[in-house]
Amino acid sequence: MKTPGSTSLLNSGVLVLNRLFQAIHVTSVRRAFCLIYKGEAKAVEPDYSTHDWRSWAQLGVEAGDVAIRTPGMQLRVPRVVLLIHLDRLPPHEVRFTRKNIYLRDRNRCQYCGRHFLRRDLNLDHVVPLSRGGRSTWENVVCCCLKCNSHKGARLPAEAGLRLLKKPVKAGWYPMVRFSYPGPAYEAWQNFLEPAS
């Protein structure tokens, strides 16, 4: 059983799912315990089984589990909780940002198809600004420095380039993947899209 510093552990992240098992945000361990205790959420195990407060407390702590000690018991720290009554994602407009373009295109140059680290990528206006193009989801793509330099202020066809796919507005809810500054735990992987 691992028991890191209780304050930092209580403030570490727990992935929150709606009733449809969709990730909606990250909360603290402290808040997750409150939600479970009040019957507003259930702890979720890696096999997707869920536990209310009583059954979670009865599970016990095994070697390797991260746990909180209280005077009367030891409780495993849940890393995923399921809200009992929320069955939809909150409305959330996906912001048009450099980071979200990289996420949409999965750090892949949309001309040559190679994957790059973000520091080796740029954004390209398919229809250049100098030719009436705009900074919109449908006109901006992830592009490597070499392809961007080669294309310049031309249309892709004029530069002998082809887009891998037509750029579209992102249709996912990226808030969990890039707004939480802490680590993404292994238990979260079944509920989040893999980051590229």
Description:
The protein folds into 2 domains: 86 residues, no CATH class; 62 residues, DNA Binding (I), subunit A, CATH 1.10.30. Helices cover 20% and strands 19% of the residues. The chain is built from 6 helices and 9 strands, in the order H-E-E-H-E-E-H-E-E-E-H-E-E-H-H. The protein has a 5-stranded mixed beta sheet. It has a two-stranded antiparallel ribbon with strand order 5-6. A hairpin with a 4-residue loop joins strand 5 and strand 6. The chain is elongated. The chain starts with 5 loop residues before the first helix and ends in a 17-residue tail after the last helix.
What's the number of extended β-strand segments?
A: 9
Radius of gyration: 22 Å
Discrete helix count: 6
Principal-axis shape:
elongated
Helix/strand-derived category reads alpha+beta
Number of domains: 2
Amino-to-carboxy terminus distance: 32 Å
- Give the strand order, joined by hyphens, for the main sheet: 2-1-7-3-4
Q: Any low-confidence stretches, pLDDT <50, length ≥5?
A: 174-178
Helices and strands, in order, run as HEEHEEHEEEHEEHH
For the biggest sheet, the summary is: 5 strands, mixed
Query: How much beta, percentage-wise?
Result: 15-25%
Average pLDDT figure: 85
Helix content: 10-25%
